[in-house]
Design goal:
Radius of gyration: 24 Å
Mean pLDDT: 82
Low-confidence stretches: 486-501
Shape: globular
Number of helices: 19
CATH architecture of the largest domain: Up-down Bundle
Number of domains: 2
Number of strands: 4
Distance between the termini: 54 Å
Structural class: mainly alpha
């Protein structure tokens, strides 16, 4: 068997085991990232697989590409209205909040590990940010449903705080190596990361949305790849100019996801799969890097640092950063508890090793242990904490079917899935009584597992899913018809080929 054949076999086995572990995660509430890490550890040199892997540069490269794809998918699925409602607290959390968390954790790490204050601050900077992949996995795939403002705050913060963590890590390494000084040098680096990343992400996002719609490709499968190319160009351009590629690719995803794109639903499905594949690959590779024997040795110090991080540093940072923005005490407590750690800290922990710092192996082992502990304790209990604080929302009813417009050209029409609630204005009325505008048609009605062909005398009942075909300009009027009493609220949107505002 050739080496590449063996690699393909091993990759296939690890992929299947990783996917199978996601079912275990959904059933028992263990975050998937923990299971993927454990799969990597079991397959590693000290595990059953015996795979010797200690290439930190390759792991960093894989982690960077994977995280870029995860953030791009996260941006695609972030509505602009969520950004507008939470960008101020999310930005403060992503900057000042990370800095406060890093300082407190770093000071404690210096005392606990017996390293210098700068080395302790380096560890604090590495684990100071909330990991986007972990938060997206728990909030979007782990069954935790929160109020929209709270959920949006956590997602936007986790997706935009990587520049601060990278800035602190790279900057402090430069200081430890004598290549930079504390103060203006570090501040300038941070401003470049944020400003350049933001501008590049916005410009390439707008150019990319125009490109996707103007290419007129004959093959539908090329559109998701075209969108991927736009995201990767955004990341690489920002990084080449000295900005944050992670921030740029996330913003590009937001711009594309909130624009009217050709074959948009297909683009979403493709990148959802790409994000899952990236998570599996990234966490398994990072798990291969670990050595359980070294983790055991790092456990005492790692446990103390994790306790400081979870119960002191993160809560202090959250309360100082977000108290002025009108969050309740229960929401602040939950935001404090959702400081999940994941792939980013482990990836950043490879930097001191690549740079040859003598404290590198110790920092990597401690960071890995803290990430595992954070994911296990905080990730597993997230749903429980949300319920105890009264913040978890009931699951939204899902239609057993979907109806979509599929087009390789822009079409002037939407299909919207409205869920009829008991206090909806349309509940109990016949379709004829709704007096829908002429440019609006109810195409299909789903009730339980049954499909009902709508007629004028068909009566709408609570729990029904009504698939409405309409012109985009009629959306507001139709929302009012199907909204709850006193609201302009509607439920899940199912669209392919267009993206309604």
């Amino acid at each position: 068997m050739f080496l590449i054949d063996r690699i393909i076999l091993i990759a296939g086995i690890l992929l299947l085991v990783g996917i199978a572990s996601s079912k275990f995660s959904a059933r028992f509430g263990v975050p998937v990232l923990v299971l993927f890490l454990l799969v990597g550890m079991v397959a590693g040199s000290e595990g059953l697989g015996g795979i010797a892997f200690e290439d930190y540069r390759l792991a960093h490269a894989i982690g960077t590409i994977a995280l870029a794809l995860i953030l791009f998918d996260g941006g695609l699925r972030t509505p602009m209205r969520s950004i507008k409602s939470v960008w101020k607290p999310a930005f403060v959390l992503a900057t000042a909040g990370v800095l406060v968390t890093s300082l407190i954790t770093g000071y404690a790490a210096a005392s606990i590990l017996g390293v210098t204050l700068l080395e302790g601050m380096l560890l604090g900077g590495i684990i100071g940010s909330t990991d986007a992949a972990a938060v997206f996995a728990v909030l979007r795939s782990g069954g935790v449903r929160l109020r929209k403002r709270l959920s949006a705050t956590l997602e936007v913060e986790s997706a935009s705080n990587d520049p601060m963590a990278i800035f602190l890590t790279v900057g402090l390494i430069a200081v430890l190596q004598g290549n930079a000084e504390l103060g203006p040098d570090l501040l300038g680096m941070f401003l470049r990361q944020m400003v350049i990343g933001g501008i590049v992400g916005l410009l390439i996002g707008r150019a990319g949305s125009s490109l996707v719609n103007r290419m007129n490709l004959e093959a539908a499968g090329m559109y998701p790849l075209l969108a991927t190319g736009v995201g990767l160009v955004s990341f690489g351009t920002a990084a080449a100019l000295g900005g944050s590629g992670f921030l740029a690719v996330y913003i590009t995803g937001i711009v594309l996801g909130n624009a009217k794109l050709v074959f948009q639903r297909g683009i979403f499905f493709f990148h959802d799969a790409a994000a899952w594949l990236s998570q599996i690959l990234m966490f398994i590779v990072l798990g291969l890097l670990s050595f359980p024997s070294r983790l055991i040795a790092a456990a005492p110090g790692g446990l103390l640092i994790a306790l400081v991080l979870v119960f002191i540093a993160r809560p202090v940072a959250v309360f100082l950063s977000t108290l002025p923005f009108g969050y309740t005490r229960r929401e602040l407590l939950f935001i404090s508890w959702t400081g999940l750690k994941g792939a980013v800290p482990i990836t950043l922990a490879t930097f001191p090793l690549m740079m040859g710092l003598s404290v590198g192996p110790l920092l990597f082992d401690v960071v890995f242990f803290v990430v595992l502990l954070s994911a296990l304790i905080q990730g597993v209990t997230l749903s429980f904490v949300a319920r105890r604080l009264g913040l978890e929302m009931p699951p939204a009813p899902e239609a057993p079917i979907s109806l979509e417009l599929t087009s390789l050209r822009n079409v002037n029409g939407d299909i919207v899935d409205y869920t009829i609630s008991s206090d909806s204005l349309a509940a109990g009325k016949t379709i004829r009584e709704l007096e829908l505008p002429e440019e609006v048609v109810i195409a299909l009605l789903s009730r339980g597992q049954d499909i009902i062909l709508p007629k004028g005398r068909t009566q709408l009942e609570p729990g029904d899913h009504v698939f409405v075909v309409l012109r985009p300009g009629m959306r507001y009027a139709v929302d009012r018809i199907f909204s709850r009493v006193g609201e302009g609220r509607f439920e899940q949107v199912q669209v392919k080929g267009v993206n309604p505002d």
